[in-house]
Amino acid sequence: MKEVKIETTLQVYLNIDELPEAIQDLMDKAVKARENAYAPYSKFNVGAAILLDNNEIIIGSNQENASYPSGLCAERTAIYYAGAKYPNAKILKMAVSASSQNKVTNKPIPPCGACRQSIAEYEIKQNQPIEIYFMGKEGKVVKSDSLANLLPLLFDNSVL
Ligand code: THU
Hints:
Blueprint: E1 11-13, H1 21-33, E2 44-52, E3 57-61, H2 74-85, E4 91-100, H3 113-126, E5 131-135, E6 141-144
Parallel strand pairs: 4-5
Antiparallel strand pairs: 1-6, 2-3, 2-4, 5-6
The structure holds tetrahydrodeoxyuridine.
Tetrahydrodeoxyuridine binds next to β2 and α2.
């Protein structure tokens, strides 16, 4: 038996103003996208904004359903829309912001596991890392240079 240690490195910015200007712009769009969330059940609004290598920005927000599992997270709404609209474009960066309607969400909210797996698919497809930035309603912003840093031991198509 041997033990395997998995480490990851993230960057933490104190607030949105500390981000490079282009990322602030992307995060602003994610914050704005939160307003389009349809979240009558969880009251938890999430917005995502994706920058493509053709300079297009795609946004998404969580869309819920009375049949709860039929709803979809903001990150997947955005990334599937990007894939559907610009199938040949590379995804450079994704910004995510989440805000509860009931309480202050001032800590960075990372993408859920299912969203990480979905984003990983595109990272593998394009053979180029996707930068991920995530925050709550306000406060710190966490950056990961690659989705892979957020999902060690990810499942990929090499085993199929
Ligand atoms: N949600 C997202 O949009 N992204 C995540 O990564 C985590 C959760 C949404 C799904 C649901 O509409 C609400 O937040 C509460 O789980």
